[in-house]
Design brief:
Radius of gyration: 38 Å
Strand content: under 5%
Structural class: mainly alpha
Strand order of the largest sheet: 1-2
Order of helices and strands: HHHHEEHHHHHHHHHHHHHHHHHH
Number of strands: 2
Helix content: 55-70%
């Protein structure tokens, strides 16, 4: 008999020995320590002594008896168990993959209850499930650009809706698991609110940068307007921003946004000012004031809104200076550029609103009696605000009676007379 034939027979004998679940269990039991016949029989729950003897005989070279007569693994038995581990791991991974696949498909269920159960179960798997979730997310996102959609619009809509459901639920699970490695996958689902929330739960520097970078797109695509007719920030949008940025370190958020105000493009600055209007504080004032003075018109307006919302009274001198500068610019050649007139007007209104709400009576008088007059939509509110200030405005108006401009003297005198008569204007807000 050749050496190769002998080896083949030995392998066949080992394979035959391992071809039974009881014998595999027997080997694993002995790997934990030597056992006697009766103890083995009880541990393996084998009722017949003959059956146990049969299995022991089949294992032959894989087991032996020690000095105390107890069964234990031979060196070949130990090698056989080691050889089985990759096979067992493969089977385990295969079963896990199947289970994850079933749960991921359940994320598309029409039943919210089924979706919730799948989300919880997948979350419990932890980082082990992330590669499968990432792959499923990519496939779901691809469905939006798939050119093979049916012609039927209703079927197409249903398919898109189904894909959106999958994307949202997968991203939600990735957020719950919170594995830093999944940031790059979640980013693909931005600017969906669920993706912002998932990144916030992961909460590292990479996810913060991703959130801030995607915010301009969220602002532009959000279904709810950022402000209402009275320039009040949309409460739902503000609550969302607080929720997202509340997961990150407050100081780190502020520094990142301030850095963007100083170094970003106008779109990024605009977005950073909007965010700071909701999550900022007095430490943000210097960066917002700098932005007010050194940015484009739309960003100036956002910086002014932010300073107003944050009640930055100390910024009033800078705001007044910008408002006067805007008036000067509106009388130059910039006024004739396409779109500039409306843009300048919007900036002046934003600046004026801040002065009206945060400024003192003297600040109101400075704007109202500036020469040449500051002309913009709503400038008449300064007259109303001064009249409504009552006696506190008399001292400042009296000084204006000495102004060399006859029109200033006349208007100041009329306002004093109206206040003394107890006149009130309509509220300017």
């Amino acid at each position: 008999m050749t050496t190769d034939t002998k080896k083949d027979k030995q392998r066949a004998k080992v394979y035959d020995a391992l071809g039974n679940s009881k014998r595999i269990a027997l080997l694993k039991t002995l790997s934990e320590g030597p056992m006697g016949f009766a103890e083995l029989k009880k541990t393996l729950r084998i009722k017949s002594s003959g059956h146990l003897t049969h299995h022991l005989n089949k294992l032959d070279d894989l087991i032996k008896t020690d000095d105390h007569g107890k069964y234990c693994l031979s060196d070949k038995g130990k090698d056989a168990l080691l050889a089985m581990k990759p096979i067992e791991k493969y089977d385990e991974d295969s079963r896990f993959k199947d289970q994850v696949g079933i749960l991921i498909r359940a994320l598309r269920s029409d039943s919210p209850g089924v979706q919730d159960v799948a989300i919880v179960q997948l979350s419990l798997f932890g980082p082990k499930a992330v590669p499968y979730l990432a792959s499923a997310l990519s496939r779901a996102l691809d469905e939006f650009s798939d050119s093979q959609y049916p012609e039927d619009l209703m079927r197409r809509y249903s398919r898109i809706e189904n894909a959106e459901k999958a994307v949202s639920n997968i991203v939600r699970v990735l957020g719950i698991i919170g594995a830093p490695a999944s940031v790059s996958d979640v980013v693909k689902a931005l600017p969906r609110p669920v993706a912002f929330e998932a990144l916030a739960k992961i909460g590292n520097k990479q996810s913060l940068n991703a959130v801030i970078s995607a915010m301009p797109k969220w602002f532009s695509e959000s279904k709810s307007p950022w402000r209402d007719y009275s320039n009040e920030v949309n409460s739902e949008a503000a609550a969302f921003l607080r929720k997202v940025f509340g997961h990150f370190d407050e100081e780190e958020v502020r520094k990142e946004l301030e850095s963007l105000l100083r170094k970003g493009n106008e779109t990024a600055k605009n977005s950073a000012a909007k965010i700071l209007a909701v999550v900022g504080d007095s430490r943000s004032f210097p960066a917002l004031i700098e932005t007010l003075e050194n940015s484009g018109y739309s960003t100036k307006a956002e910086a002014a809104h932010a300073l107003l919302r944050l009640r930055a009274n100390e910024a009033i001198p800078n705001i007044i200076s910008e408002l006067i500068k805007m008036q000067d610019e509106s009388s130059t050649e910039l006024e004739t550029e396409s779109g500039t007139t409306e843009l300048l007007c919007n900036v002046k209104i934003a600046l004026a609103e801040a002065v009206l709400e945060l400024g003192s009576v003297d600040d109101l008088l400075q704007i109202k009696f500036h020469r040449p007059k500051l002309e913009f939509r709503g400038s008449g509110k300064f007259y109303d605000a001064i009249i409504n200030s009552g006696e506190t405005a008399i001292a400042g108006l009296t000084k204006l009676l000495q102004n060399p401009d006859a029109d200033v003297q006349t208007e100041a005198a009329e306002m004093i007379a109206r206040i003394k008569r107890g006149g009130r204007a309509h509220p300017f807000y």
